[in-house]
Amino acid sequence: MSAELQAWPLWLTSPLALLGAGLLLAQVLGLLLAARGLPRLYGAVASGLLLGVSGAGLIDAAVATQFQELFNAATALVLFEVGRKMDLAWLWRSRRQGASLLLACLLRGTVVWALLAACGLRAGEAGFMAAILSASSPIIHSSMVADARASGVTVFAGANLVGLGNVLALLALAPSIAWLRTQVDTETAGYGAELVKQLGRLAWGAAIALLCYGLYALATRLSRARAHLRPGMLLAALLMDLGLCSVSAASALLSLLLMGVLLRNAEKRDNVFQAELRTGQDIGYALLFMLSASLVQVEQLWHWQTLLVALTVFAARVAVTRLALAPATAWGRRKKPALALSMYSLVSFGSLMVDNSMAGYPGLSEPAQQIMAALLALNVLLAPGLTWYGLHLAGENHEEELHE
């Protein structure tokens, strides 16, 4: 037997081979689940759990870090799509509906802050966590909408609520991160200076979005590119946006959302970006789900006190979302609970930051870290299914079209 054959297990040390094996397993498991009427992307969750830190341990934080840029690129496409689906004119014209969505975001943050403070967390760290938990995951919502081939008023309202919630969460994070950093880093110049730094990240993100969108608009007009040729140019502009945000520590989430908002609300020409990248998006969703699940620490769910707090937070978020939708008149009695349930998911700090320039949870105590770990574990395990069920409850899923 040759030395090469004797050393065949060395493929386990190749991050790229592990990633490919994980994606292949995710696709196989996903198709088996879809054949039984279950969300296909749970195959990626199962693959991540089997290969990740709670399973075989082949994919851990060190391996995931090597694919940070790939993770960022996949996240960038999702965030751009979220921004592209935000209809600012509708949010303003609808008045009562738009106000209900805004109220849902504010109530979620307020109630979560009160719950966490009641559990003994410091006001500052409770505020930091509440800012994150006021938003829903754009990755989970977008992927479940794509998985269920859903469309309708609930999907439309949900997309606007996801975008609005992420922007508000990012704005709320600026003062909370500044406060936490002044508590744990004695070398900071003070709260005011740190707040200006955080607000500067947001301003630079917005400026980069305007620059990259302007270059995209100029290039497509100078070249007179037709609709079917513009997706490639748009993708190039998105990569420029993400790269500039990465090297300047600007807010990539705000920048990429703004790119989508500009395409939806400022661009008057037809675009076929969604149709051209459907296969790439499906692979991107599987990659994001698998990497997220691979880092889930299931053992965090064995501590019943932490699990109880996490479940209470999730239940409270759904309940106050439903309460905030009560004044709205555009959605029926069945649509409102369906919309609230489809907003069950929470966004992670890593997705809000997009890049790894602000990794981790700065200044959180050990109990707060445990609660966040339990929340993220439940988010990966339960949120996709409940979001998918909410779309079914609203009657806006169209998976049967796949079999026609």
From TrEMBL:
Subcellular location as annotated: Cell membrane
Superkingdom field: Bacteria
InterPro entries hit by this protein: Cation/H_exchanger_TM, Na+/solute_symporter_sf
UniProt KW Nucleus keyword: no
Keywords: Antiport, Cell membrane, Ion transport, Membrane, Transmembrane, Transmembrane helix, Transport
Cation/H+ exchanger transmembrane domain boundaries: 26-347
Matches recorded under PANTHER family: NA(+)/H(+) ANTIPORTER 1, NA(+)_H(+) ANTIPORTER 2-RELATED
Protein name: NhaP-type Na+/H+ or K+/H+ antiporter
